């Protein structure tokens, strides 16, 4: 059976077809692991098996003696800066003297065949002297320094109002969230090709080409223009590709051997070779008046940053500033700290600091509701932020903030019919393999709300560059924004069609050679930032086009507009197709788009650090087998503040996909560590939701209040679905079981063996002076 | 690496020579790196994610779990063999696009192969049967909602 190609060429607001869709379904889309070059070698990394050890010696002679091995590199072979890092270069390209986490790269190999490279890696003799790893984040600041820079990666305090304020009701709790993996399907991979000028071309899956280039050039001791990055197809990222992985090492191997080098991580190596979501330990105390209105929020938050800094600084900032959630509170004492340990490095993952605190602040809101016998939805409505309110950082909400609307619409969604009493056998928790009684299955409902800051802030000048070129009625867009699956490529075409009235929009391959930075594909920022840059470039070209037509036809520019693909004057004296109007001319404009400036936070965490915020509500319905501890998520209902819907199908995909990752953290996903050693680096042991685990998602409402300052009125939509979905699912399990469940993920033993478990630890709210 | 061997594989109806290959290579590697058929993907290489799904003698398998040299004589169909020709889509491929079942696309070829296999053996699956059938294919982007919609759309279209 065969059918025509998908060619929906939509404008803004329509479900336009993905330009990469046809090659993706045909298996022809070139991901980074599909790269090939004649005569290429295979690279392989040698990684530390120890979370903490001194390196006494490295002997590469046996590896080099294997036929087919072309190069073995250690730290001595790094010609430039021997460390890298997004915020500060504290992470070795290849470790020397000491390793600080299990999986840290120590050597790199290139060989004719991947198996030869693996055998060479195994033949390198590294004499380690293991040392006692620092693995408890709560005591890490008092432990032996893991790194000369110490064990405090970043501390953020936020204080506002009266620290001694008290409320009629006080609830408190200690909460934990586990280390989550992005588990993007495409493993880290790339192809480096040495250039004739002594430089290198790297085809790589990443999230931000220009920041990679900057870090690589320093390590390779090459000028920027000799380090040329080209985006290869990206098989998802979710934060995993924000830090460098193999970029420096494969370029070094290519430069050393003079041959192209390809490297592809195995899944195990992917688990060990990228940062994870910070595990969090959080102590919270909420004060409220007798009507349930918040009086004061105290929070102490410890994030395990693992061995190196990565993006911990920004994660800590988000966690501290978003600690109370989307609620109005005049008094707050918050301290968040990321500590250094010998656990795997942690950094960016979808939700970035907000996921952790949302789990805690939403549990606190439920405790408050229970203490005051107020409905959980009602207590959230009473405290919901409104435009004009201040965050605990003193920043006033000047954009759209439909918090009450997302709460109301989500709560009003009809509940799914049926229940554990009538469900089909296969639809009970555990499915076909279950053995417990049907009458020991309980249904529960939980509700949660979240706030997420959008884009980079804290004084960072975040921008994106884009170029639009119009020739013969075809627009070509050049922008280094990375497509990771979210659909920026679709949006860029929609924008060009909308502004220029063209049908054909070509997207130039993203790279570092002929366009400036687009910033990172993270922080829900590309629709606003690179969408804004593409729109501005297209508008500038439209101005050129219309001014030219005005000159040629002796009419005023103001009388012209583009309507349905034609340049028309209001009296229709001029009526030309776009290609006709620009005939023979090449119109081109390049634009840097900046968002409104932000400021750094002061010592008390006060300042206008953020550009914009998005809000979401989730309601989870679960069935829980009390005896086996198994959970089946029956349905997730959601409402989200999206500003404006630009592509309905892609938006739904962001909501459903983010919710799946939220369900994962709520009930199954956790990197299991044993004294710093990762015990489950595989999809056999690190389980992510399958089609059987994922319930229907009921989108109750998409709240469209165009965001002032956003070029198309839209807010980034990728992160909010991941944030409150975790808290909602665990709240529903609490509702079904009556258990406190202060930790995500909720494991079967947390439910089935709950009575045998230890009670929760005493609360220690003391913050450092 | 020991002895290198030569053999032939029949993929998408065509005989391919595999020359001087290490005996330990799995079918996924040989398809991707030796035969120029990179449509089957390498997401876990231990039979958990289904990204490398191919049909071998009418059975759906993870090509990462098949020793390539043991596939001699088998009829192998990969994602590259599912559409009628260049610039053509199978009904299932078209449904994945129309319903929004594709984001990053890394799992997509494996899903497309699995769904072809499902609808061939069970033209009218229930929703639960669909979920069960594709539960060996992991997707991290979509949450499966649009993929499920795509399967149901293709199923309905075939029903006519």
Short description:
The complex is a heterodimer of chains A (769) and B (160). With 769 residues, chain A is of the alpha+beta class.
CATH topology of the largest domain in chain B: Ubiquitin-like (UB roll)
Radius of gyration of chain A: 27 Å
Distance between the termini of chain A: 71 Å
The whole-angstrom Rg of chain B is: 16 Å
Average pLDDT taken over every residue of chain B: 96
Tell me what the structure shows.
The complex is a heterodimer of chains A (769) and B (160). With 769 residues, chain A is an alpha+beta fold. Among the domains of chain A are: 398-450 and 612-769, Aldehyde Oxidoreductase, domain 4, CATH 3.30.365; 463-594, Aldehyde Oxidoreductase, domain 4. Chain A has 16 helices and 33 strands. Chain A has a seven-stranded mixed beta sheet, sandwiched between helices. The longest helix of chain A has 28 residues, at 526-553. The mean pLDDT of chain A is 96. With 160 residues, chain B is of the alpha+beta class. Chain B has five helices and five strands. In chain B, helix 2 (91-99) crosses helix 5. The longest helix of chain B has 15 residues, at 145-159. The radius of gyration of chain B is 16 Å and the shape is elongated. Chains A and B meet through helix 1, helix 3 and helix 14 of A and helix 1, helix 2, helix 3, helix 4 and helix 5 of B.
């Amino acid at each position: 059976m065969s059918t025509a190609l998908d060619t929906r060429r939509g404008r803004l607001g329509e479900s336009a077809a993905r330009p990469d869709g046809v090659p993706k379904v045909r298996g022809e889309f070139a991901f980074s692991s599909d790269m090939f070059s004649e005569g290429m070698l295979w690279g392989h990394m040698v990684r530390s098996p120890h979370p903490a050890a001194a390196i006494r010696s490295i002997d590469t002679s046996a590896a080099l003696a294997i036929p087919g091995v072309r190069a073995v590199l250690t730290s001595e072979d790094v010609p430039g800066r021997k460390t890298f890092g997004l915020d500060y270069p504290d992470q070795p390209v290849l470790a020397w003297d000491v390793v600080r986490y299990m999986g840290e790269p120590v050597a790199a190999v290139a060989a004719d065949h991947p198996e030869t490279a693996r055998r060479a890696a195994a033949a390198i003799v590294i004499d380690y002297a293991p040392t006692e790893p620092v693995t408890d984040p709560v005591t890490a600041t008092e432990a032996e320094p893991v790194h000369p820079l110490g064990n405090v990666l970043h501390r953020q305090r936020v204080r506002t109002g009266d620290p001694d304020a008290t409320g009629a009701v006080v609830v408190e709790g200690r909460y934990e969230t586990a280390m989550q993996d992005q588990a993007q399907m495409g493993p880290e991979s790339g192809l480096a090709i040495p250039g004739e000028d002594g430089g290198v071309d790297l085809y790589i899956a990443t999230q931000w080409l220009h920041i990679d280039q900057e870090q690589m050039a320093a390590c390779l001791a090459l000028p920027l223009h000799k380090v040329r990055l080209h985006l290869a197809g990206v098989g998802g990222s979710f934060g995993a590709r924000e830090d460098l992985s193999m970029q420096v090492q494969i370029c070094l191997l290519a430069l050393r051997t003079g041959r192209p080098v390809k490297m592809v991580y195995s899944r195990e190596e992917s688990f060990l070779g990228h940062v994870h979501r910070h595990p969090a330990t959080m102590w919270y105390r909420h004060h409220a008046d007798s009507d349930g209105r918040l009086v004061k929020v105290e929070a102490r938050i410890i994030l395990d940053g693992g061995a190196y800094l990565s993006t911990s600084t920004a994660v800590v900032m988000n966690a501290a500033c978003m600690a109370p959630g989307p609620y109005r509170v005049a008094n707050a004492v918050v301290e968040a700290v990321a500590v250094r340990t010998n656990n795997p490095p942690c950094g960016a993952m979808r939700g970035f600091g907000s996921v952790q605190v949302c789990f805690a602040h939403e549990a606190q809101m439920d405790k408050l509701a229970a203490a005051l016998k107020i409905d959980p939805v009602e207590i959230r409505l009473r405290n919901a932020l409104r435009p004009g309110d201040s965050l605990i950082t003193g920043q006033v909400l000047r954009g759209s903030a439909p918090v009450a609307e997302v709460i109301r619409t989500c709560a009003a969604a009809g509940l799914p019919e049926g229940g554990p009493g009538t469900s089909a056998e296969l639809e009970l928790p555990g499915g076909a393999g279950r053995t417990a009684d049907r009458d020991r299955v309980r249904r529960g409902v939980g509700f949660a709300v979240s706030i997420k800051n959008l884009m980079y802030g804290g004084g960072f000048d975040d921008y994106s560059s884009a170029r639009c070129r119009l020739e013969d009625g075809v627009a070509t867009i050049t922008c280094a924004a990375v497509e990771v699956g979210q659909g920026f490529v679709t949006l860029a075409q929609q924008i060009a069609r909308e502004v220029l009235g063209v049908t054909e929009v070509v997207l130039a391959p993203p790279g570092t050679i002929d366009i400036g930075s687009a910033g990172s594909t993270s922080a829900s920022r590309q629709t606003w930032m690179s969408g804004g840059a593409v729109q501005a470039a297209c508008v500038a070209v439209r101005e050129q086009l219309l001014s030219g037509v005005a000159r040629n036809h002796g009419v005023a520019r103001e009388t012209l507009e583009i309507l349905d693909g034609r340049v028309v004057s209001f009296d229709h004296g001029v009526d030309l197709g776009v290609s006709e109007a620009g005939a023979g001319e090449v119109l081109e404009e390049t634009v840097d788009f900046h968002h409104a400036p932000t400021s750094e936070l002061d010592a008390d965490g006060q300042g206008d650090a953020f550009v914009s915020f998005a809000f979401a509500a989730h309601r989870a319905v679960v069935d829980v087998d009390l005896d086996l501890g198994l959970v089946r998520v029956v349905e997730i209902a959601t409402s989200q503040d999206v500003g404006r819907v630009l592509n309905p199908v892609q938006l739904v995909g962001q909501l459903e996909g983010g919710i799946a990752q939220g369900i994962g953290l709520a009930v199954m996903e956790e990197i299991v560590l044993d004294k710093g050693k990762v015990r489950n680096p595989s999809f056999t042991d690190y389980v992510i939701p399958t089609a059987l685990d994922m319930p229907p998602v009921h989108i109750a409402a998409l709240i469209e209040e165009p965001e002032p300052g956003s070029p198309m009125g839209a807010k980034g939509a990728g992160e909010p679905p991941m944030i409150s979905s975790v808290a909602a699912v665990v709240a529903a399990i609490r509702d079904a079981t009556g258990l406190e469940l202060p930790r995500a993920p909720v494991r079967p033993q947390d439910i089935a063996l709950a009575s045998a478990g230890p009670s929760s630890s005493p609360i220690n709210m003391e913050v450092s002076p | 690496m020991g002895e290198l061997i030569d053999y032939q594989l029949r993929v998408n109806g065509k005989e391919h020579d595999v020359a001087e290959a290490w005996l330990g290579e799995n079918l996924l590697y040989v398809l991707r790196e030796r035969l120029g058929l990179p449509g089957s993907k390498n997401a876990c290489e231990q039979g958990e994610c289904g990204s490398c799904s191919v049909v071998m003698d009418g059975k759906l398998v993870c090509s990462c779990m098949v020793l390539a040299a043991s596939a001699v004589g088998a009829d192998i169909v990969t994602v590259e063999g599912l559409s009628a020709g260049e610039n053509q889509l199978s009904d299932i491929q078209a449904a994945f696009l129309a319903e929004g079942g594709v984001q990053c696309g890394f799992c997509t070829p494996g899903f497309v192969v699995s769904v072809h296999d499902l609808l061939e053996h069970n033209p009218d699956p229930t929703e639960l049967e669909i979920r069960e059938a594709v539960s060996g294919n992991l997707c991290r982007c979509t949450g499966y909602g649009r993929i499920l919609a795509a399967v149901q759309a293709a199923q309905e279209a075939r029903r006519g």
